[in-house]
Amino acid sequence: MKHLIALLTSVLLISSVFAQTATIPVPAAASQAAAETPVPASDYRLPERKFKKKILATAFTVGKNVQIDDIDEVGQNFPKELLHRLYVTQGFLTRMSPNLLSFNYEVDAPSTQLLRQLGTQYDSQFVISGTILDASVITEKKYWGLIENKKRHLTLQIELHDVASGILLARHKLSQIADKDITVGKDKPFASTVFFSTSYGKVFDQLLEQATTMIIKDLEATSFYAKITQIGPDGEVMLDVGSNSAVLPGDVFAIFGRQTNLSAKGMAHVATEHQERRLGTLAVIKSQSSSSMAELSADTKTSEVKVGDIVRADTVLGR
After folding, report:
1. CATH 3.40.50.10610 region(s) of the chain?
2. pTM, whole model, 2 decimals?
3. Domain formed by 53-220, architecture
4. Which of 38, 63, 82, 291 is deepest in the core (most CB within 10 A)?
């Protein structure tokens, strides 16, 4: 009997030990180790906000209109498509001048003065203009004239001007050759899928891509700027840029007064140089779609700031 009681006691002790072992909680550190480690907050980086530059395109002039009579209004449609490609990069606000149209005869390229006038009229910082120089067909004969191979050139010249200074920022001459499907037809709308499916349409596509890349590169080193359009008596000014250019309340820009130095040439005075003098800073306090209200800083003399002065983003002090 004593042996039976001792045996039962041992069984109860062993069962108690197993029960305690099964209910021991897993350490918190072990469960956390199995979970995915969160990324530190410092590794979450928002993309840098970029101000959108305002760019205008005029219709391209045509060297010899008879060479492109099979293409749908290329003088107007080429710059329109170029503006579209610049727009989708989200770095530009684009607009097309309705006052400089492509006619059915050859015209001269617009003058710098006209480009500046158009840029000012349509609230742009930069103006694209261009000329279709050559769209000729060349016939190559082989094997004593038994075989003919026709090729078609496309040569363009594109110019990029700064509106505020009138300076020519860049000039590019682009050229390609198509050797099949050289006739397009006006039944194929410019920049449509069927247009780009032709050999000559592909040449246009290639030159459009080249021009887009070149213009973006040309303007990378050119700072975003705006102009002062109004000045209030209490140190508040209006700018010609707003939220659609990514300008937001809190942005701080430097103000520059513009001065043109003139040099005498015969009986006339010719502008030869544009100089800028730093006048102080301003901070944006209210932003609308295409305009902003800003406040002059305490170290800026209101009497020195004028309508037409430039504010530049390459000297942004902070946000």
Report:
1. 53-220
2. 0.73
3. 3-Layer(aba) Sandwich (3.40)
4. 82
Chunked into runs of 10 residues, the chain (319 residues) has average pLDDT values of 47 44 41 36 46 93 89 92 95 82 55 84 91 89 70 95 90 93 91 95 96 95 89 90 94 84 48 70 94 92 89 62
pLDDT tens digits, 82-141:
999 999 999 999 998 866 554 444 556 678 888 888 888 888 999 999 999 999 998 777
Residue 32: what residue type?
Answer: Q
CATH dotted code for 225-312: 2.40.10.410
Which residue shows structure tokens 């041992």? Answer: 10
Region(s) of the chain under CATH 2.40.10.410? 225-312
